[in-house]
Amino acid sequence: MVPIFLTFYRRFMKPIELVSHLIERFENDGYLPQPTEQQKRIHAILLLWLSHYWNDFYAPQPRKRLSCFLNQISTHYPFISHSLTPFTTEPPVNDPDCDWGSHSSSPCLNPPDPEFAGGQIDWMTPKEDLFIKTSDRHLAQQLTLIESQLFCPSIAHFNFVSAWVSTMIVSEARMSRRANVLTRWMSIASELRQLNNYNTLMAVLAGINNASVLRLRETRQLVDPKVIKDFEGLESLMSTNGSYCLYRQALEETKGAGIPYLGVHHQDLISIDEANKDFRQDGSIHWNKFKLMGKTIMLMMKFKYVAYPIEPDFKLLSFIADYPILSDEAQYKRSIQIEPKTTANTTTTSRLKGLWQRLK
Questions:
Q1: How many CB atoms lie within 10 A of CB 87?
Q2: In b/e form, how buried is each residue of 56-81, taking b as 16+ CB within 10 angstroms?
Q3: C-alpha distances in angstroms, 302 versus 256, 289, 306?
Q4: pLDDT band at 275 (very low <50, low <70, confident <90, very high)
Q5: Paired residues of 279 in beta bridges
Q6: Which element (helix H / strand E) includes 263?
Q7: pLDDT of res. 343
Q8: Closest by alpha carbon to 333, among 160, 169, 170?
Q9: Under a CB-based contact definition with an 8 Å cutoff, are residues 14 and 103 in contact?
Q10: pLDDT at position 72, please?
Q11: H or E segment and range at residue 251
């Protein structure tokens, strides 16, 4: 219950208020030869808080209050003071929760970090076209490495991956090469599933199902039926049916490293928040609301601290980051150029032209 409380307490109190309450309760028990059970619990809470949420101490007031407390107890309970002090050696660089949580200082002025392929992870090396040379597995691993470094509901990064997929497909003028690129991305989607990277998997599915790609029926006909069948299985897995029931079941059964499809869980949090007030009519905290939100967050957070054993491929990462992306309008325009709209009265000449394109 303590991790859930530390996740949500800033909805109804400031860090300075919480640290002051904990210190007051600690001091109420006095200073005996051995700490009391309550003091041991407070020590455990502070240890968890400082090790996971040090950014809550971005404002100077809670840091100063905590520092005075640790100095005070250092003569009575040096082992408690020494166990907490290492977490406080340097002030936090920012407060990522200041936009929604109560805080002691003026509104945060921290500029938002740019997204990858826009720069949140700065891996820059000379660019070269590596897509054809790179195996499906290796590319899926590098995309997973990026996602694991971000591990946040980054709409910009999700949109980038989706647009990158559709841009690569419609950029190929020759139908045979276009079908190869489409096949590659369907296979990469399967590799992402094997890596339990559901977030990037969903982005790739969105790119392949973009209107500019979805209309390329002649191109899709050249893809191996087995690849199509496997891809349709992935679409079923990530389907919205039953509130993403198949995906939720797969995530629950996932062991080891994984990256959830954060869009689903982000929407879960919004729905719980909007359907329940923070406080009951009698003024008490609506704790059941925060328990539900906490379960949602804990489901995601269990994957945050299990790292993938993947080494960065800097050339490939730079290739991904620097890839020029077409706008939705440009993608669709390009799609019409490479596979023009057909009419019911298709002439023999146009059918022969289509056959010739497939044989190229």
A1: 16
A2: bbbbebbbebbeebbeebeeebeebb
A3: 9, 20, 8
A4: confident
A5: 285
A6: helix 262-275
A7: 57
A8: 170
A9: yes
A10: 92
A11: helix 241-253
Residue 184 CA to residue 340 CA, distance in Å, equals 23
What's residue 120's pLDDT? 39
pTM: 0.62
Q: Tens of pLDDT along 284-334?
A: 887 778 878 777 777 777 777 778 888 888 788 878 877 889 999 999 999
Burial of 225 (0-12, 13-18, 19+ CB in 10 A): exposed
Q: How far apart are the C-alpha atoms of 7 and 294, rounded to whole Å? A: 7
Structure tokens, 114: 């740019």
Q: Is the predicted pLDDT of residue 353 greater than 70, yes or no?
A: no
Question: For residue 151, what pLDDT band results from cuts at 50, 70 and 90?
Answer: low
State the Cα angle at 251 between 247 and 253, rounded to 5°: 120
pLDDT band at 122 (very low <50, low <70, confident <90, very high): very low
**If you average pLDDT over residues 162-187, what whole number do you get?**
95
- The span from the CA of 209 to the CA of 239, in Å, is 13
Please answer whether residues 265 and 219 qualify as being in contact, where contact means their C-beta atoms are separated by less than 8 angstroms.
no
Rounded Cα distance, 138 and 135, in Å: 5
* Structure-token match 């009519």, residue found: 281
CA dihedral 47, 50, 53, 59 (to 10 degrees): 150
- pLDDT score for 106: 41
Q: What angle do CA 93, 159, 321 make, to 5 degrees?
A: 65
